[in-house]
Design a protein that fits this description.
The protein is of the alpha+beta class. The chain is 12% helix and 21% strand. It has a three-stranded antiparallel β-sheet, with no helix packed on it. A hairpin with a 5-residue loop joins β1 and β2 (25-35).
Length: 116
């Protein structure tokens, strides 16, 4: 992961990318901090092999839980308002939404160039 996830506290989520040893982008996704030492990664493509290989030498446990959970993404500038309207408690808008992506990535999905 190229992001310092230690700053993502329990109950929070962060966007992250991960790269190979040469620094080339492998994939991106969201990382949910479930507890101070537990994270859940959500990706579009299966990345279990990469995570397992990257965990060698670290005191971590990697488990695939794809069959145990489901994901529903509600995204965009009105997502907070929509979730609040359907009664989801504890939803708050980001304090500084313009800083949710780095300036180089803003307006495009990581690893994919926007046509000009």
């Amino acid at each position: 992961m190229t992001r310092d996830l230690s700053r993502t506290g329990p109950g929070r989520v962060a966007y992250a990318v991960w790269c190979n040893d040469e620094g080339h982008l492998i994939d991106d996704g969201t990382v949910f901090c479930m507890a101070h030492d537990e994270y859940r990664v959500c990706t579009a493509e299966r990345q279990l092999d990469w995570f397992t290989a990257s965990a060698i030498g670290f005191d971590v446990e990697i488990r695939e839980i794809t069959e145990e959970i489901a994901a529903l993404a509600v995204q965009g500038p009105t997502s907070c308002r929509v979730l609040q309207a359907v009664g989801l408690a504890g939803v708050e808008a980001p304090q500084n939404p313009s800083n949710t992506l780095c300036s180089r990535c803003r307006g495009r999905r990581a690893g994919r160039r926007r046509s000009r």
